[in-house]
């Protein structure tokens, strides 16, 4: 069965890669997320859940507030 | 000193002023070893200055490439040039030579080759600006150890710019870097056409646009094509360490341990050079004083100039040591974890996790703490942190607390300890409450939710830490030191002038003191002379500007239980709070040698008010304690606040709110206690 569904990044299980679909945050936060590689099209993975949580994107670990993670929609699939 | 920088005997260059010299801009992501490379290339000749019109700092230095001297400008560590932050905007302007920045001849983008995809995003953006670029592929040693392979020629083709693998840590590859740099610095370098995937953007000023995604796609594609393997070893080690160090419970415990170690080291190690500086300054003062005839010149040199220089120098050990230790912590990767675990707790008062380290350092001294707030990116968060830092109990408050503890709880060490703990707590509670208040009123704004790179753990560089310590020390001496020295001389003048003539002095002295002084002087001994001078002290000070103002403001401080003599102490300690103890010693005619012993305490206890009640009753002593716990009373801090915020406005506000807070809290303390104890 092909797995294909979306959720927010805070709800993504640890260790499962997903693709960022869209982010709904203030402009300033969008810009801060974008330069770190947290923007539409990138593949992201939760390294450690919680608040703040640790995510991996572009081979780097990023500490991320759960409130921002909830604003990031990701698609698990492929 | 780097191996490449020792070949010069030229004087220190004045960068930017010399337009005929090529200018090299150094840019790169944070944690890529950019600073290490800068230090390697420029050695010890680097200077820190602000970018024009900002409080943002840049390091300038120079190197020699192909027999030619080249200025090097170190730009702030950045992930991108999207101009969302001040750093990004300034770096972009500096690369393009816009808004008054000199246009760089070429740019070196420092890339961490163990995180190639992430770093190539910035490379792409710098390429889009059209500046001649060289890519320094750093961390060769690490990549080698991990079995990571980067195909340099392939990378050069993909980027359209020369690429050199280096290790800034070991110095490997630096001669090759200079060699490849040379053609770019001639000014006639042709910039290769932009890679196709990066074309059609040209909009590095907008956010969230499709071009940014295209740039990331390009970065990931290029990294995948030109490199092989991944840094598994260091990634596993980092993940394992993070399981403990970012754990909600264990992480906090580790943080408490690291911070306690930092604080204890700072306090105990800085003490040694600080004592040495104080001893040396006192010895110098004595030497100068004994060679010059007593009079205005001697007093100016000894108390004004030498005392003032000592007052500046004494801060240096703590500043250098703090930045040395912080640089080690940052370089190791731990500081990011500290901010990570503190983020939620600090968020409750509206401050980011990064504000915690400055707040802890402020318990040693507010000045290095203020200088370390630069790690806080958000301007409002940084301003709030700067405003509240001086409320925390710095070491200069300790002599004042010790004096009050001796007054209130002589022979009761337990109660004295409780008083000290209470004073520390008062500072912390006041700082957190004011931060909460400022974030909701003056500097309103949601605290920025955490987005922070947690870099790979590595061994920190001692050399970079030393350079960072020296750099901070030089910045402090240059920018704040001169202001502090001027202020010290000003305070000396206020407590010396106008002077009384000998006849006026005798007439103004109380009869008993006059007789005692005459008797002491008649002994003809050095001790007798000192005793006579101590007895004349109160009258001299009373008639100097400081004393006159002290009397004038007596009504202002009367509700706190202070009389004009304590007011002189409050005024004279306006520049440095620990001065209270020595001023009260002068006011109450306690000789220099008696301050350390029981002399001062006995003298203070014996003082009576005009109505015959003791001056230092419990309510007054407690009120004095509360006032000194909360009042600004430190002009060096004000000078540094001005420097860090770029305006006297914040320094003035800081002084005003802290004085108002101190007065109100001391008023409540005195009025409550004097009624309860009556």
Secondary structure layout plus pairing:
The complex is a heterodimer of chains A (78) and B (678).
Chain A: E1 5-8, E2 18-23, H1 27-35, E3 43-48, E4 53-57, E5 60-64, H2 66-69, E6 72-76
Chain B: E1 23-28, H1 34-42, E2 47-50, E3 57-65, E4 68-74, H2 86-96, E5 106-112, H3 116-128, E6 133-138, H4 140-146, E7 149-150, H5 152-159, E8 163-165, H6 174-185, H7 210-226, E9 227-228, H8 232-245, H9 250-291, H10 296-313, H11 316-332, H12 334-347, H13 356-361, H14 366-371, H15 379-388, H16 398-409, H17 413-440, E10 451-454, H18 462-496, H19 502-508, H20 511-522, H21 526-543, H22 545-552, H23 554-557, H24 564-572, H25 579-587, H26 599-606, H27 618-630, H28 635-645, H29 648-676
Helix pairs in contact in B: 3-7, 5-7, 8-9, 9-10, 9-11, 10-18, 11-18, 15-17, 16-17, 16-27, 17-27, 18-28, 20-21, 22-24, 24-25, 27-29, 28-29
Give the tags.
heterodimer; A: 78 residues; alpha+beta; SH3 type barrels; 2 helices; 6 strands; globular; B: 678 residues; alpha/beta; Rossmann fold; 7-stranded mixed β-sheet; two-stranded antiparallel ribbon; 29 helices; 7% strand; elongated; disordered N terminus
Task: Describe what is shown at a glance.
The complex is a heterodimer of chains A (78) and B (678). Chain A has 78 residues and is α+β, with helices and mostly antiparallel strands.
Which overall shape of chain B is indicated by the principal axes computed on the Cα atoms? elongated
Describe the biggest sheet of chain A? 6 strands, antiparallel
CATH architecture of chain A: Roll
How much strand of chain A?
Answer: 35-45%
**Biggest sheet, spatial arrangement of strands of chain A:** 1-6-2-3-4-5
CATH class of chain A: Mainly Beta
Instruction: State the separation between the terminal residues of chain B, measured CA to CA.
Output: 68 Å
Strand order of the largest sheet of chain B: 2-3-4-1-5-6-8
CATH superfamily of the domain at 23-230 in chain B: P-loop containing nucleotide triphosphate hydrolases
The residue ranges of chain A in which pLDDT falls below 50 over 5 or more consecutive positions are none
Topology pattern of chain A, helix = H, strand = E? EEHEEEHE
Shape by Cα distribution of chain A: globular
At CATH level 2, the architecture of the domain at 23-230 in chain B is: 3-Layer(aba) Sandwich
Q: Tally the helices of chain A: what do you get? A: 2
């Amino acid at each position: 069965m092909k797995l294909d569904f979306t959720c927010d990044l805070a709800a993504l299980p640890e260790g499962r890669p997903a693709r960022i679909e869209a982010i709904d945050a203030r402009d300033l936060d969008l810009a801060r997320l974008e330069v770190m590689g947290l923007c539409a099209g990138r593949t992201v993975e939760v390294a450690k859940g919680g608040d703040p949580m640790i995510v991996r994107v572009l081979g780097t670990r990023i500490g991320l507030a759960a409130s921002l993670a909830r604003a990031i929609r990701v698609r698990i699939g492929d | 000193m780097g191996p490449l920088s020792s070949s010069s005997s030229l004087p220190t260059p004045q960068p930017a002023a010399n337009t005929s010299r090529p200018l090299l801009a150094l840019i790169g992501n944070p944690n890529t070893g950019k600073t290490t490379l800068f230090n390697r290339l420029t050695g010890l000749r680097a200077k820190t200055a602000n970018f024009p019109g900002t409080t943002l700092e840049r390091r300038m230095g120079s190197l020699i490439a192909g027999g030619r001297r080249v200025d090097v400008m170190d730009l702030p560590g950045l992930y991108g040039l999207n101009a969302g932050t001040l750093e990004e905007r300034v770096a972009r302007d500096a690369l393009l030579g816009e808004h008054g920045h000199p246009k760089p001849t070429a740019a070196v983008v420092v890339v961490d080759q163990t995180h190639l995809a992430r770093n190539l995003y910035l490379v792409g953006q710098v390429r889009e600006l059209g500046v001649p670029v060289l890519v320094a592929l750093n961390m060769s040693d690490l990549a080698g150890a991990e079995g990571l392979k980067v195909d340099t020629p392939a990378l050069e083709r993909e980027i359209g710019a020369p690429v050199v693998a280096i290790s800034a840590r070991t110095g490997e590859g630096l001669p090759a870097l200079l060699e490849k740099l040379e053609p770019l610095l001639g000014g006639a370098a042709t910039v290769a056409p932009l890679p196709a995937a990066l074309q059609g953007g040209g909009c590095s000023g907008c956010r969230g646009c499709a071009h940014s995604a295209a740039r990331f796609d390009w970065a990931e594609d290029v990294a995948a094509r030109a490199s092989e393997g991944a840094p598994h070893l260091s990634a596993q080690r980092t993940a394992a360490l993070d399981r403990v160090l970012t754990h909600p419970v264990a992480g906090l415990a580790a943080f408490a341990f690291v911070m306690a170690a930092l604080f204890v080291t700072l306090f105990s190690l800085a003490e040694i050079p600080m004592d040495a500086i104080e001893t040396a300054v006192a010895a110098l003062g004595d030497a100068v004083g004994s060679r010059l005839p007593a009079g205005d010149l001697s007093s100016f040199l000894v108390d004004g100039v030498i005392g003032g220089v000592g007052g500046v120098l004494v801060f240096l050990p703590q500043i250098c040591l703090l930045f040395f230790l912080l640089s080690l912590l940052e370089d190791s990767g731990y500081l990011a974890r500290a901010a990570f675990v503190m983020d939620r707790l600090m968020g409750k008062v509206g401050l980011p996790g990064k504000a915690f380290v400055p707040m802890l350092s402020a318990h040693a001294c507010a000045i290095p703490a203020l200088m370390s707030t630069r790690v806080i990116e958000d301007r409002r968060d940084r301003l709030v942190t700067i405003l509240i830092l001086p409320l925390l109990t710095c070491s200069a408050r300790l002599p004042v607390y010790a004096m009050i503890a001796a007054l209130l709880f002589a022979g009761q060490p337990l109660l004295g300890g409780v008083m000290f703990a209470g004073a520390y707590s008062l500072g912390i509670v006041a700082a957190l409450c004011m931060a909460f208040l400022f974030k909701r009123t003056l500097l309103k704004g949601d605290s920025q939710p955490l987005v922070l790179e947690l870099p790979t753990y590595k061994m920190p560089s001692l050399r970079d830490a030393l350079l960072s310590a020296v750099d901070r020390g030089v910045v402090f001496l240059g920018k704040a030191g001169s202001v502090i020295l001027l202020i010290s001389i000003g305070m000396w003048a206020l407590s010396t002038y106008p002077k009384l003539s000998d006849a006026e002095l005798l007439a103004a002295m109380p009869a008993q003191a006059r007789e005692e002084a005459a008797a002491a002087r008649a002994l003809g001994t050095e001790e007798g002379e000192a005793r006579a001078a101590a007895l004349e002290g109160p009258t001299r000070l009373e008639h100097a500007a400081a004393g006159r103002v002290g009397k004038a403001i007596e009504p202002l401080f009367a509700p706190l239980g202070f009389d004009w003599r304590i007011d002189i102490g409050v005024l004279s300690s306006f520049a440095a709070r620990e001065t209270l103890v020595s001023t009260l010693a002068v006011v109450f005619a306690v000789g220099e040698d008696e301050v350390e012993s029981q002399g001062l305490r006995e003298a203070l206890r014996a003082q009576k008010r005009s109505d015959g009640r003791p001056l230092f009753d419990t309510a007054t002593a407690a009120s004095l304690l509360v006032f000194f716990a909360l009042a600004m009373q430190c002009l060096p801090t004000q000078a540094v606040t001005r420097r860090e915020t770029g305006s006297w406005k914040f320094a003035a506000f800081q002084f005003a709110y802290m004085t108002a807070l101190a007065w109100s809290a001391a008023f409540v303390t005195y009025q409550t206690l004097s009624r309860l104890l009556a």
